[in-house]
Write a structure and sequence with these properties.
The chain is built from three helices and two strands. By secondary structure, it is of the alpha+beta class. A two-stranded parallel sheet has the order 1-2. It is elongated, with a radius of gyration of 13 Å.
Length: 85
């Protein structure tokens, strides 16, 4: 498991969550990450958002993706909501 922290400070792949969520989150699933909440005082533009959450160099990208990868979902099946088809 990745040990990456979720947005609220807990690991979505922590044993106490993983053991339950593995019944619902399956390797064949696709994931769309929806930014309902973000640091609005630090995000004033798309480039600010990408610096924090973007696929290439986003500071928090690994933490978001890592939790789902622990469930066997490959990174190419994890997208931002605006990338989802």
């Amino acid at each position: 498991m990745s040990g990456m922290k979720g947005a609220e400070g807990f690991d979505i792949d922590a044993p106490w969550l993983y053991d339950e969520l593995k019944n619902y989150v399956k390797p064949h699933h696709s994931v769309a990450v929806v930014a309902f909440s973000f640091r609005d005082n630090r995000v004033k533009s798309l480039s600010d958002w990408d610096a924090l959450y973007g696929r290439l160099n986003g500071k928090f990208y690994g933490g978001i993706v890592g939790g789902f990868v622990s469930y066997g979902i490959p990174e190419d099946k994890i997208t931002k909501a605006d990338e989802a088809g």
